[in-house]
Amino acid sequence: MIAVRAENISKVFKLYEKPIDRLKEIFGRKNKHREFVALNDITFELEKGSTLGLIGDNGAGKSTLLKILAKTLSPTHGRIEMQGMVSSLLELGTGFHPEITGLENIFFYGSLLGMDNSVMKKKVDNIIEFAELNEFIHYPIKTYSSGMQVRLAFSVATALDPEILIIDEALSVGDQYFQKKCLEKMAEFRKAGKTIIFCSHDLYQIKTFCEKTLWLNKGNVSMLGDSGAVVNSYAAFEQMKSDNYKTGEQMLKQGQGTHNSFISVRDFHVRQEDARSLVISFNVKTLEPFHGHIGWAILREDQFQVSFMTTHMQHKEPFLFDGQHRGTITIRDLNIVKGTYFIYIGVFDREAFKPILVECTDFRIDTGIDILNSLCFFDSIFSIE
């Protein structure tokens, strides 16, 4: 059964240089606008109970497509068919009134979706418990941080038990603990046969959680299919773009970084704290100062990626590498079985697109868990001196 069908969806926005131009166009005969094509002929189908990932650069049209799917924006051309109740988490604050309390907004949001107060009263305790806002539930939404707004919005969106759940990148502003909690909830939805559309810049989450992935590029479909193949193609495309990216540091301009002529990783060690935790330590030495990020990954012997993270993905500012620095990474909550793994450490450029140096070591895990879950939730802490 098809849960979502999008046929030839296009969205064209009219852009005006000055607000008065809109009025002049209404009463005059000349166009005063230029057109911006945000989406161009998007077509796809999603079966009931399946998961679709949505990836692409900023400005690719992802949020526009999700708004059309959530019925908060109308397409210029094409049509959408949705089978079942739809609940969505898009931009922060969508569906909330800033002047009333979180508790009042629960009922307000439910009314926007056509839910009776009697139904919401039965769900309100579970919503508050999941959001973990405690006494803040009685404070106005305008006093909430972005993370608190996401907690409440996700709690309400999932508590309504929709057949189709749409999640935008707003989830990324939450802390790692709540992101993990949300992903676990989404996994429950998937197991229950719900249809999920998930947009994220975290390619690992997309690759492991979503069966299919849609890659948008400048409003067009670049690729649609198996998540592994689409994510790998997108990553290769980004790598090709980064090959043309030049940082401001002299050594990178000369292209010497790819030969490790000015940077090295030494004293690379891994130790296991318990069945689900690893500690990685290393020294980074540079001959020339530059700004960049650190990344780390764990792969099985068959090259399946168990975990991947960068300081850029953790929303950290580029670090100034100048001289010698000691780095420590603590990875917890790993779903890993006994066996041999490859541990990678990478030094990336300012945008975390281009690996300047990658070092690898193998490591034997003898006290892992018995069963590898389909989703790998992990929490990682990075520090450098």
Which key terms come to mind for this protein?
about 375 residues, alpha+beta, Rossmann fold, Coagulation Factor XIII, Chain A, domain 1, 6-stranded mixed sheet, 9 helices, about 25% helix, globular
Distance between the termini: 55 Å
Looking at CATH, the homologous superfamily of the largest domain is P-loop containing nucleotide triphosphate hydrolases
Approximately how much helix is present in the residues? Answer: 25-40%
Q: Please outline the major beta sheet.
A: 6 strands, mixed
CATH architecture of the largest domain: 3-Layer(aba) Sandwich
- Name the helix and strand elements from N-terminus to C-terminus, one letter apiece: EHEEHEEHHHEHEHEEHHEEEEEEEEE
Q: Strands of the largest sheet, in order across it?
A: 5-6-7-3-8-9
Enumerate how many helices there are, as a single number: 9
What is the CATH class designation of the largest domain? Alpha Beta
Average predicted confidence as pLDDT: 81
| Morphology | globular
